[in-house]
Amino acid sequence: MSDHDHSIENEPHLQAHPAQPDPSETAAEKTLRHATNRDPAQEAARHSVFNEPMVRPTAADSARTPIDRDWSCPTCSYNLRGTHLGDPCPECGHTSLYQPPPLGETSYGTWLNEKRRNTPATTIWSTVVFIALAGGVWAVVGALLTAHLGIWGIVLIGPITEEVMKIAIVTGTIETHPYLFRKPSQIWIAAICSAAVFAIIENVLYLNYYFPEASSALVHWRWTICSSLHIGCTAIATVGITKVWSRSINEMREPNLAPAGPWLIAAAAVHGIYNASAVFMAAAGFDF
Ligand SMILES: [Zn+2]
């Protein structure tokens, strides 16, 4: 391709004849049309202009109104209710670009409300049970993928992968379908059961295939300490994703995963430190 092909004179709208669309555009259009047909109400709500960041009112703007509902700062989660749009957060100084949509206008919030009203309890509990079983199986895939990475796999990549994958299905559900949980307790059941299922599969694989000659002390260790570690680390990560969900539901806005990050990092750190100590103790001659 020569430089000439990229010349501005070759733009489609400057040609004498009608532009020939690239074949990839037909495929893209088909995909987009399919997505829109699946749930037109969701598309309308998610693409509403009221989900967009606003042009900030300036301090001199006399028409500025205080925020009339719970509306957390995207950086530090401080409740900005009662503060003025465009003012920096009193807690962290961040100036939010997002403001609550006018009441009654179609927005993510109206769609979410509608979905929450119309989702039956059976759908919600089926979701919880499905995730409780599938979340752990999914995480085993991650564990197997990192099993061959040696010491870095054990103390760094493995713990990160496992902690991410144990709560991946719960997190994905919260991000795309927050109405599929009615209460925080359902998130806890789904996440903790995922971790328990993961621990069970991992122990069965470990004790039957990798170390079939394991001492009874090792068997005992795996079923008590290792299982508790997996459930405990997922519990730490679950605190974060429950915050994400609560904020989305309470403020009727799109889930923002950022507040879950530090909790996930903490979970992976505890897991990594545990694994590093186990490697160290094994090297020092402890039999377990
Ligand atoms: Zn803030």
Structural notes for this entry:
The chain is an all-alpha fold and 288 residues long. It has a domain at 110-283. Helices cover 59% and strands 0% of the residues. It has nine helices and no strands. The protein has helices at residues 23-38, 40-46, 108-118, 121-145, 150-166, 168-176, 184-210, 216-251, 261-283. Helix 2 runs antiparallel to helix 3 (108-118), helix 4 runs parallel beside helix 7 (184-210) and helix 5 packs antiparallel against helix 9. The chain is globular and about 75 Å long. It starts with 22 loop residues before the first helix and ends in a 5-residue tail after the last helix. The model has no long low-confidence stretch (mean pLDDT 85).
How would you classify the helix and strand content by structural class?
A: mainly alpha
Overall mean pLDDT: 85
Gyration radius (Cα, Å) is: 25 Å
Record field, number of beta strands? 0
Helix percent reads 55-70%
User: Which spans of ≥5 residues are poorly predicted at pLDDT below 50?
Assistant: none
Through-space gap between termini: 63 Å
Shape: globular
Bound molecules: zinc ion
The string of secondary-structure elements, in order, is HHHHHHHHH
Largest sheet: none
**Total DSSP helices:** 9
Q: Strand percentage, roughly?
A: under 5%
